[in-house]
Amino acid sequence: MESINGRSNGGQPTGGGASGGADGGTSGGTTGALSSRTFSRRWILGAGATTLLTTGLTACGSSDGAGGGSSTLTAFVYGDDAVKVQQGAVDRFNKSAVAKSTKGKVKLERIPGAEYPAKLRTAMGSPSAPDIFYNWGGGSIKAYQDAKQLVDLTDTIEGDPILKSGFLPSVLAAGGLGGRQYGIPMRGMQPVILFYNKSVFTEHKLQPPTTWAELQDINAKLKAANITPFALGGADIWPELMWLEYLVDRIGGPQVFAKIQEGDASGWGDPAVLKAAETVKELIDDGVFGSKFSSVSYTNGGAPAVFAKGKAAMHLMGSWEYSTQLGKFPDFAKNNLGWCAFPTVEGGTGDVRNVVGNPTNYWSINTRAKNKDAAVAFLKDCASERYAKALVANGDVPTTAGAAKLLDASPNPEFAKFQYEMVEKAPAFTLSWDQAVGSTVSTPMLTEINKLFVGKSSPSDFVSALKELK
């Protein structure tokens, strides 16, 4: 699919995207375990599942044959390896009593990753629009909301105990717009995590930082030992974005970007944005990323190699870094890869528990869906334990509320539990900026971020340029 961000839906980078979480390719050598940077999640349809259909969503009544047969709903999905989880859900639903009672079935249409956004846009403007479709929430669905093509699921979720309590609140909220819910989580979480090289930290008697002052002290000690503090794949741009996402959150809280996400460009003028940009410039001027980061790529394995080989001690990256390292440098991944939360920033108002990244992927329903009752019933399976187990078996960390007890079956239980608890406890989970805003904003935004990192604009110039984005 077109690069919404260069990171695949499952979490792996794709190879040359501008940034963040859409493509579905894998970084060469990554394994399937924990590498589906897709966003996923869970629980099983009970005998009373049809009670959720009392929420005002009525079937439109299209059927496949004469005599009022079952209607078949088309579901567009991102066609990567993780799609087997969704195919399993389709197979279960089509054989269920709920499918029979709602007179509906689901047909999965797999769209090749590189083609997904463009094909979805084209289809949504045609008579062959899908009834159900995979997306990233936030800015990725705003155009469809504006065109009144999305079923508002807020009341449906609030009125059904399984959907209301079945998912982690921060993830469920991240898929909405304007305080309304338009999606049900259906893949695994992909928070951005501060990774560190345990052997380097042990050798230099360092501890994972919890505050910005501690991080600065670590940076100074590493540079004195001729070790670059952080690996950074600046050639791809989207790894640079992660720094601003966390700094703005820690300095000003999640409400700063929430204002921008809702379409108010004046939010870029918030003091937290300028302070974050100034902090980035200080890091660059201080040599924290080395002198050649702008020519290093994540997607071709450059930044992961710098990190794994001990040339850099830390790496701020999405949770798919684990699977990337497991594929390229398995000994490092198993023995020396450490992880922790992004530190607090002194004087900032953001909660250290807040998370940025890709909460998950979502299923949304087209207002033109032939059988909305069946569509909602199908989406409910994403909250099932059976669905969550399938995600865990695929190496994903589900976003369902009860998934913690399932994570012992994960390829790396310790890492899976860290991610889950990180997201479970997060007061806010900010969607990657380039996914949260529309393409008319994300592309120039990434350009301005890169200019800031390579020294072609000052922090104040950066803020001024972003305030002009509409």
UniProtKB/TrEMBL annotation:
Residues 1-33 are annotated as: Disordered. Pfam families: SBP_bac_1. Residues 8-31 have a biased composition (Gly residues). PANTHER family: ARABINOSE-BINDING PROTEIN-RELATED, BLR3389 PROTEIN. This is Sugar-binding protein. It comes from Streptomyces aurantiacus. The lineage of its organism: Bacteria, Bacillati, Actinomycetota, Actinomycetes, Kitasatosporales.
